[in-house]
């Protein structure tokens, strides 16, 4: 049979045919279970809430262990996300659990952008998975999936209404992660106040368009219990690792002077409901919703930004190769355009620089001419002064010579008269007695 005929028959639909005997593909579910158990499972929880609402204690209580992580410091100026991964084993099933906490959430005076690091962290996990998917050699079966499967949003037990920070953050997260709101430390308010608080929270979430995670109703096996649990949202929970013997068994409790609150007593809080819905009934649905809804939305938006579409403007199937060639040509065109713009900009800057250098050269020449003229004027003045001084020196020398000559003549005349008198005295001794 030709390949075209096979394709045509496949397009027309499948026929149901009976089997004459046992074949064995009914063991596929068992094979799938065995393969899944051998590979193990992963589950990632994001805990969002203000400091002091018992996020770490609730995680310890949910998984019945003590997670030893580094103590968080609240001295950072913004919100910091701290991720810790643990390997858990129950019976023959392995679980790689990652708990991400929001350190410093709600501690700032300006809480306007407190949600932004959380959104960026979730998008970063989606981007890492997308990059792994787009590789030529993919290793998704060994890839540690770090996408957030469930976001437990811890609400402070004020008993009044949701804070604006809570509404804004949940609104930003509802399209990226499965948001499950819970009232933390619910033993801080009375039963009547807690009932009114739940109604108020549900009303505010609906009026503000916040889409929280709804437990699935399409599976008949869990539809009834999930429907009942959806009506109990948000869960009012208490966390504690302290144990006390009540009756014949040890139970987790919180002890107060006025009495004891049992964590696993459904009359005291909704901890058991949360554990059932989150871990024992809907863990796989949370994983599936993360992949098929939230990740697919991120992937579609990201690929559309890159120019990839399922159909062209004429609603015809779009070829990935054609899209690649179109994007490549578009990129090359933009590259050439930018190259031309840069070349023109370079030429323009060179011209501007040449003009600046010519102007500077002109100014230097003018300055040189000014300095040269000034130098010549100064030189002329100095020469005139020198000539004047030389004239004065010559006149002084002439006067000096004349004065010396007169003095010499005067000295000679005085000496002649003295000799004449001496001679006369010698010849006439009487002149001496007188």
Automatic annotation (TrEMBL):
A GO MF term: GTP binding
Biased composition (Low complexity): 407-417
InterPro entries: G_SEPTIN_dom (IPR030379), P-loop_NTPase (IPR027417), Septin (IPR016491)
Keywords: Cell projection, Coiled coil, Cytoplasm, Cytoskeleton, GTP-binding, Nucleotide-binding
Compartments (UniProt record): Cell projection; Cytoplasm, Cytoskeleton
Lineage top rank: taxon: Eukaryota
Coiled coil residues, start to end: 321-399
PROSITE patterns hit by this protein: G_SEPTIN
Residues annotated as domain Septin-type G: 39-305
Family listed: Belongs to the TRAFAC class TrmE-Era-EngA-EngB-Septin-like GTPase superfamily. Septin GTPase family.
Oligomeric form and interacting partners: Septins polymerize into heterooligomeric protein complexes that form filaments.
Protein name as it appears in the record: Septin
Organismal lineage: Eukaryota, Metazoa, Chordata, Craniata, Vertebrata
Gene that this polypeptide is encoded by: SEPTIN6
């Amino acid at each position: 049979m030709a390949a075209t005929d096979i394709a045509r028959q496949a397009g027309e639909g499948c026929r149901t045919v009976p089997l004459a005997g046992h074949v064995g593909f009914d063991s596929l579910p068992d094979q799938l279970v065995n393969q899944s158990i051998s590979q193990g499972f992963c589950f990632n929880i994001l805990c969002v809430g203000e400091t002091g609402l018992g996020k770490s204690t609730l995680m310890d209580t949910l998984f019945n262990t003590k997670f030893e992580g580094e103590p968080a410091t609240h001295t950072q100026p913004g919100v910091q996300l701290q991720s810790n991964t643990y390997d858990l084993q129950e019976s023959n099933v392995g679980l790689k659990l990652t708990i991400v906490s929001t350190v410093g959430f709600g501690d700032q005076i300006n809480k306007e952008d407190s949600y932004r690091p959380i959104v960026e962290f979730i998008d970063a996990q989606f981007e890492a998975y997308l990059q792994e998917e787009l590789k030529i050699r993919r290793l998704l079966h060994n890839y540690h999936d770090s996408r957030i499967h469930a976001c437990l949003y811890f609400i402070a037990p004020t008993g009044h209404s949701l804070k604006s920070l809570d509404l804004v953050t949940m609104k930003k997260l509802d399209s990226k992660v499965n948001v499950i709101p819970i009232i933390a430390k619910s033993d801080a308010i009375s039963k009547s106040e807690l009932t009114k608080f739940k109604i108020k929270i549900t009303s505010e979430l609906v009026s503000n368009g916040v889409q929280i995670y709804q437990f699935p109703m399409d599976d008949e096996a869990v539809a009834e219990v999930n429907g009942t649990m959806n009506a109990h949202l948000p869960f009012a929970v208490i966390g504690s690792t302290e144990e006390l013997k009540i009756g014949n068994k040890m139970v987790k409790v919180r002890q107060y002077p006025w009495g004891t609150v049992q964590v696993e007593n459904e009359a005291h809080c909704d901890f058991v409901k949360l554990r059932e819905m989150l871990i024992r009934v809907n863990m796989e649905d949370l994983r599936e919703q993360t992949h098929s809804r939230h990740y697919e939305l991120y992937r579609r938006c990201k690929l559309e930004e890159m120019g990839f579409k399922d159909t062209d403007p004429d609603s015809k199937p779009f070829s990935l190769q054609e899209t690649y060639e179109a994007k490549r040509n578009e990129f090359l065109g933009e590259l050439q355009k930018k190259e031309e713009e840069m070349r023109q900009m370079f030429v323009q800057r060179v011209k501007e620089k040449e003009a600046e250098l010519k102007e500077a050269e002109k100014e230097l020449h003018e300055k040189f001419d000014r300095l040269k003229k000034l130098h010549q004027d100064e030189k002329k003045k100095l020469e005139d002064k020198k000539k004047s001084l030389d004239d004065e020196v010559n006149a002084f020398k002439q006067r000096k010579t004349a004065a010396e000559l007169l003095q010499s003549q005067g000295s000679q005349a005085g000496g002649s008269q003295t000799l004449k008198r001496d001679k006369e005295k010698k010849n006439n001794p009487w002149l001496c007695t007188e």
